[in-house]
Design brief:
Strand content: 15-25%
Distance between the termini: 78 Å
Largest sheet: 8 strands, mixed, barrel
Helix content: 40-55%
Number of domains: 3
Number of helices: 23
CATH class of the largest domain: Alpha Beta
Shape: globular
Length: 612
């Protein structure tokens, strides 16, 4: 009988909890731990939970595992900003007694702040009463306890559960993470889920990450939180994520976020110098006195030499000092011991817009904390307050709106010029000049409204190409049927081949079926004669950093060069979308042109050019 088993492991203290880190890729810190149960006589806890359920002991057994997890976490509560995730089935969660007993165990017996607890719903059974479940969620949320949905994609996890729970965290099942870098179906599914989770103000955690290739793809997709063997295996003590992996993640995040910032969009423009203190110099009493003497100080950064170690806001200090024993507990402690360790850090070259989004993504009560700014060496530069960050983010959005093309909402010439200037300063880069072939004839044949539809279609295809191919860059609309892509890295020919093929495949919706099938439509040529015109296609003229040797080359010269590549491409009069790389070298005094070379691809009836 399972009841006898449970009594025995309780009496002999045979159950234990181990810690597995949950990692925040944006801050480079471990922000939480999942508490995983370990019990004797079963290969894994799932088998024990199944046995408990079969004997009608699931709720009692889960509450015991919850108690074990809280007791395991208690000695490590000095990990100030870390939360701990505890697995729980909805069946136990909705029990009438669970709310009072859980809070008593957390708050009264172990004196742990409820806001550090996350109940992870492990839907082992169907939720019978969603109204009751929602009410229980509300009660726990009011006490500061947050909710996570585990294993999205398997079992009973569904949209109804997410609506009922309004979870703070959603974990994607590991089966959808494994080999995602090589599975296009999984990639599209996860991209959609990331967008959905963001839209409902939740946090997406990729669980079961075991390979760098998986993490690399997920980072490029916009996933921020990770858990898995790559970062750290379950351990009896709460260890931080693997330092080698953390270093690679920081480098990748810097590549994804930092280089995108234009001169006007760099977070470093907003920096001011706050009050700083060195480690081991201020205790709680001295810090409280500092805030009282100077009312202009609303936050302090703690430095270890030149490296930021902690952040203390006035609000944080007041919370630590509150209660009957608050002040006495921190009075003699050094400031760094009770400071915030999980503060948002950004390099001075990062984008204001990106950092603004990350800052607003922080959990309450950290949302309006200042952002700590460092240089590339990790040395402290200053801070940016949320007030200034929001003001300048709004200003940038207004500027972009004024400069955006009204049809596609894409940035126009001023922003494109800024992107090119930034790319020239920070190679490698790829510049793509894109336009439509035979677009005037399309307009004449089908009308200007259909022409507008084709322009919007082209903008959507180029934007989608950036996302689906992991391109870190921007799409701009010069005007008419002319577009520019600026990427802060080199793009391989196979990517452009794929863009052209997808463009030609999906444009079928823009033509009458009979015209698309035969590959022609009737329109007047330059002499005014009606003739068969090949379907409208996309031309991509491509320039990379490899062909530019002048350190101070002018933007105008680059765009002229792109136009000449486009002209060479159009002379081929292709009936399928095509691309052409410029292989000429720009020198100090003249353009030295190599001979034109061409490598043909022949998928179906499409031929794509790799070089000119």
């Amino acid at each position: 009988m399972f009841q006898e088993y449970l009594q025995r492991i309780k009496r002999k203290h045979l159950a234990r909890s181990v810690f597995q880190p949950i990692f925040d890729s944006m801050t480079g810190r471990t922000v939480a731990y999942e508490m995983l149960a370990r019990v004797p006589e079963f290969e894994n806890p799932e088998q024990a939970l199944l046995a408990a359920s079969e004997d009608g002991m699931l709720c009692e057994f889960e509450f015991f595992l919850f108690q074990t997890a809280v007791e395991a976490f208690k000695p490590w509560e000095h990990l100030e900003e870390c939360s701990f995730f505890v697995n729980l089935s909805p069946q136990t969660f909705v029990q009438p007694w669970f709310f009072d007993e859980a809070l008593k165990w957390i708050r009264e017996i172990h004196h742990i702040s409820p806001r550090r607890v996350v109940f992870e719903m492990t839907e082992r059974s169907v939720i019978d009463n969603y109204n009751l479940f929602s009410e229980q969620v509300k009660h726990f949320n009011e006490q500061g306890i947050r909710i996570a949905i585990d294993d999205l994609g398997i079992g009973h996890s569904n949209l109804v559960t997410m609506v009922s729970a309004s979870p703070h965290f959603i974990k994607l099942d590991r089966s959808l993470i494994q080999n995602i870098h090589a599975d296009s179906y999984k990639q599209k599914l996860v991209k959609s889920l990331v967008e959905f989770v963001s839209s409902v103000d939740s946090r997406f955690i990729a669980e079961g990450v075991e390979r760098w290739e998986e993490m690399d793809f997920l980072l490029r997709t916009g996933v921020r939180y990770f858990q898995g063997f790559l970062l750290g295996r379950p351990d009896g003590e709460p260890k931080s994520a693997d330092s080698c992996v953390v270093a690679k993640v920081k480098s990748k995040v810097s590549e994804l976020i930092g280089p995108k910032a234009s001169v006007l969009d760099k977070i470093g423009r907003l920096v001011y110098k706050p009050r700083t203190i060195q480690v081991n110099h201020f205790n709680g009493e001295a810090l409280s006195s500092l805030f009282k003497k100077d009312c202009s100080i609303d936050h302090v950064v703690i430095l270890n030499g030149e490296t930021p170690e902690g952040l203390i806001t006035q609000d944080h200090l007041e919370r630590k000092s509150s209660g009957p024993f608050g002040y006495s507990l921190i009075q003699k402690k050094m400031a760094e011991e009770f400071s915030k360790k999980d503060f948002l850090v950004a390099e001075e070259d990062y984008s204001i817009t990106d950092i603004g989004q990350l800052a607003m993504d922080r959990p309450h009560p950290d949302t309006y904390d200042p952002v700590v700014i460092t240089n590339k060496q990790g040395e402290f530069v200053g801070t940016v307050t949320m007030k200034h960050l929001l003001q300048h983010t709004l200003k940038l959005e207004v500027q972009r709106a004024h400069n955006a093309n009204p049809l596609t909402n894409l940035p126009g010439n001023r922003m494109i010029q800024s992107w090119i200037e930034q790319a020239l300063q920070h190679p490698p880069f790829t510049l793509v000049y894109a336009d439509l072939d035979r677009f005037k004839a399309f307009n004449d044949c089908y009308g200007f409204l259909k022409g507008d539809d084709f322009i919007v279609y082209t903008a959507d295809q180029l934007n989608r190409a950036l996302i689906e191919n992991g391109i870190q860059g921007h799409v701009g609309h010069v005007g008419g049927d002319d577009f520019v892509i600026i990427a802060q890295h080199q793009i391989e020919a196979v990517v452009f081949k794929r863009i052209c093929e997808i463009f030609d495949r999906d444009k079928a919706n823009l033509f009458p079926q009979e015209d698309y099938v035969r590959g022609f439509f009737a329109a007047s040529n330059r002499e005014g004669k009606v003739c068969d015109i090949p379907l409208t296609t996309l031309s991509l003229a491509i320039i990379t950093h490899e062909n530019i040797t002048d350190s101070d080359i002018h933007v105008g010269k680059i765009t002229e060069r792109a136009a000449s590549v486009k002209k060479a491409l159009k002379q081929r009069k292709n009936t399928a979308s095509d691309f052409l790389f410029d292989r000429r070298i720009i020198c100090e005094t003249s353009l030295i042109e190599s001979r034109f070379s061409r490598r043909n691809y022949t998928p179906k009836d499409v031929s794509h050019s790799e070089s000119a």
